[in-house]
Design goal:
9 helices, alpha+beta, 496 residues
């Protein structure tokens, strides 16, 4: 019984404690607090109502007449971006990520001709004035998966777009192709556009174009700025694969345009000046304006098409021209120079070869015709003792490697000087007047295969076997030692 009373008393104490806590907290909840709670609910409801109204406002374009909105968008694109786009009546309106119209399968017209087929266009619009079709303002445009077909008169299309007002608006072209075509509609070059953007630079107060492209599997970056007041176009092209950068200024106020390009190749700077119009492109390349160490002049004539490059230099840097990583080698590997429409001739005279002054009086000749590249009639001398003449040559790609094949004629004027240089024992110093041979040189592997070697008109099998394969080293000193050894070995087997 005592235990039961104790338990009841314990329950009453717990109940009293709970009542005290309830009374204490309920007293805090006064009328003002209840009023604030009601007001908070009104605010939430107001926000919900405003959100519904805002979304409804954004959805207004879905009720526009398809034909009318197509007409307004076409007019806006022409006025703001100078883009004449044929817009079909199958527009789609999307809210996310921003309100925009999406168009499939449309066309760009340029000079009243069809310039491009576009798979997708997104036209982003301003959030203002959505109540009326006539007040819609285009902000940004994204063109995706387009194929541009350019002929000669269309080349300025992308530059002309820079004349538009890009303040508070942008134009993007992504994942597209530019096909440069001949007058016969044959595809000459395909340029891939990965990401091209037109925008207004707030700091420099100028329109700019920035594009990441690819041509012949070679990626490159280009930047353009058009100064309309000064009639000057600035461009910068970077080709990281070749360690090459071109910074160009073009002045186009006169009928004949003129300009200057700074060429920076592997930290070596050259100057390129030029003038051009619709019929020709004439240029000059030099290392500096006063007392240049080298100077080259060239011409590209468009009607009829032919081109040449000729020049002179004190020291010819052959690795710069023909090493496996040189610009020319990489260009040949892209097969861009194998185009049958190319007609190009090269003539360079040099006093010496860079880093090897024993070679002098260099005449480097080359031509590209009907897709074939050769260096026939190229000549050079070693001291005053030997003359080298190259004929029946061909430069080509074999299994992705650059190869030169040709016939070499060696006229010996002073064989004693050769024997002294090679340190050939006197009992092996037979008279040599002329050497003829056929060779194949692999630029990538740095190997030379010699065959059909004739000395003074006679074929020598032992010498052909010894010199059948020459493997050059990376170090010049090692090459010098190696060549002396193998040539002396061949001389010892020459019976005269």
């Amino acid at each position: 019984m005592n235990k039961t009373n104790s338990f009841v008393k314990y329950l009453k104490q717990i109940n009293k404690s709970i009542n005290n806590q309830l009374e204490k907290n309920l007293n805090r909840l006064k009328f003002d607090n209840l009023l604030n709670l009601v007001r908070s609910n009104k605010i939430i409801l107001t926000f919900v109502a405003l959100f519904i109204l805002f979304v409804s406002y954004l959805l207004l374009p879905t009720f526009y007449n398809q034909s009318q909105i197509s007409k307004e968008l076409k007019s806006g694109l022409l006025e703001k971006f100078d883009l004449d786009i044929k817009i079909p009546n199958n527009l789609k309106y999307n809210l996310f990520p921003r309100p925009h119209f999406k168009i499939n399968d449309s066309l760009i017209l340029f000079s009243n001709d069809e310039l491009s087929n576009i798979k997708n266009i997104k036209i982003y619009i301003s959030l203002e004035n959505l109540f009326s079709i006539n007040n819609i303002e285009i902000k940004d445009v994204i063109i995706e998966n387009a194929n541009f077909n350019f002929k000669k008169d269309d080349f300025n299309f992308f530059i002309k777009l820079l004349e538009n007002n890009f303040i508070n608006r942008t134009l993007n072209i992504k994942d597209s192709n530019v096909f440069f075509r001949s007058f016969e509609n044959e595809v000459l070059v395909i340029n891939k556009i990965h990401d091209m953007k037109y925008y207004y630079d707030q700091k420099e107060l100028k329109n700019k174009l920035h594009s990441n492209n690819e041509i012949f599997n070679v990626p490159y970056e280009i930047k353009l700025v058009n100064d309309i007041k000064q009639k000057k176009l600035f461009s910068e092209v970077s080709i990281s694969l070749f360690k090459l950068k071109l910074e160009n200024e073009l002045f186009y106020a006169d009928e004949v345009y003129h300009g200057k390009t700074d060429i920076i190749y592997n930290k070596i700077k050259s100057i390129f000046t030029y003038k051009t119009n619709k019929n020709f492109f004439e240029f000059k390349i030099l290392d500096k304006l006063e007392n240049p160490k080298f100077e080259y002049n060239g011409l590209f004539n468009f009607k009829p098409f032919y081109s040449y490059l000729k020049g002179s230099t004190k020291k010819l840097n052959l690795p710069y021209l023909i090493s496996e990583n040189s610009i020319i080698s990489q260009l040949i590997k892209t097969k861009i120079l194998n185009n049958k429409n190319l007609d190009f001739k090269l003539n360079i005279n040099a006093d010496n070869i860079h880093n090897n002054l024993n070679f002098k009086n260099i005449i480097l000749n080359s031509k590209i015709q009907e897709g074939l590249i050769d260096i026939d009639k190229t000549k050079l001398a070693w001291k005053d003792s030997v003359e080298f003449n190259l004929e029946d040559s061909l430069i080509f790609i074999k299994e992705d490697e650059l190869v030169l094949d040709g016939n070499l004629s060696i006229i010996v004027k002073d064989d004693d000087e050769i024997y002294k240089f090679l340190l050939t024992p006197k009992n092996y110093r037979n008279e040599i007047k002329k050497i003829d041979l056929n060779f194949t040189y692999n630029f990538d592997e740095k190997t030379a295969n010699l065959k059909d070697i004739r000395i003074n008109g006679k074929l020598h099998q032992k010498i052909n076997k010894i010199l059948s394969s020459i493997v050059f080293k990376k170090d010049n000193l090692q090459n010098k030692i190696y060549l002396k050894k193998i040539l002396n070995q061949a001389i010892k087997n020459y019976e005269g």
